[in-house]
What does this fold into?
Amino acid sequence: MVDLKSQYLKIKSEVDSGIQSVIDETAFIKGGIIKEFEQELQSYLDVKHVIACANGTDALQIAMMALDLKPGDEIILPVFTYVATAEVIALLSLVPVMVDVDPDDFTIDISLIQEKISPKTKAIVPVHLFGQCANMEAILQIAREHNLYVIEDTAQALGSKYTFSDGLIQRAGTIGDIGTTSFFPSKNLGCYGDGGALMTNNDELAEKLRMICNHGQKVQYIHDVIGVNSRLDTIQAAILRAKLKQLNEYEKARQWAASRYDELLKDIVQIKTPKRIANSTHVFHQYTLIIEGLDRDTLRAKLKELGIPSMVYYPIPLHVQKAFQPNPYSVGSFPVSEKLCKTVLSLPIHTEMNESMVDFIVDALKKSLN
Ligand SMILES: *Cc1c(COP(=O)(O)O)cnc(C)c1O
It folds into this structure.
């Protein structure tokens, strides 16, 4: 699905010397280059504050901890997402209020948000799934009308750009009150272990987020709020600094592979290629097809026999997962997401793909159709 080894070999000397200098300085925790990486990511994203933390799940949890929510407060999220988004809500004794997604772009269906808002609703968490932004203009408008926070789960879409109707362009994760992201190795900006970050343009929230990441302290041993221990390792920051310089090239490589797939797959009736929405660029964390008129899992097994990996993101919607029982929903509550779970198929896509790889995969896919 990804080729992190070839990617590493191209920047090996920079990564290796970055790691070595952290070891030479024994600056393993909170080394100076964490700050440098945060500043570099700030300027890349054009956002006032980036706060590095241990992983993308922590980032979501810390974002919610910073908002002074009470047990029972409700958080709106798409039902078709990675478990982390909902998990942290439940963990903080908040209530995940699930909403179905748009069948074309897989992000939260904005026409279904309003009816889920109650006096207890405090925030909306759009997920920029697979690398394309949710409809942020509409989400911000709903949030403003109802006085809700917006936390963008940007784990899959770092770098993606959203264009508002007045022409304003902002990067994913810098649009709402807080953005969160993950540097898990296979993400678009991945390190060689776990890592994550929070983004915000709000000075007050930034200070609070930074404190929560560090045991609720601003001054050592003075604890003003309950926090957690969630730090990015300095060694990971060294790797991320080298890779951030390549992020534009990585994005182009993924987009190139996606358009070649599009071109080769466009006339196959059983396959729907990923739809692009007008207001967002797509950074293709995943290249996700919808398979129609034939069994997705059989197709996947045939592909595997031909040596082609593929993945199903995600096979079971959140409301059906055992961990989220009991809940007010049942099978049938979210028809679009339930259908997507049975029909989506993600093909390999990464920064090292070339023409012959895409063609080989498409040939195998064509052979597997009958
Ligand atoms: C990867 C991911 C996360 C969690 O990130 P980790 O760094 O693995 O904790 C959260 N949300 C989404 C949508 C993700 O894809």
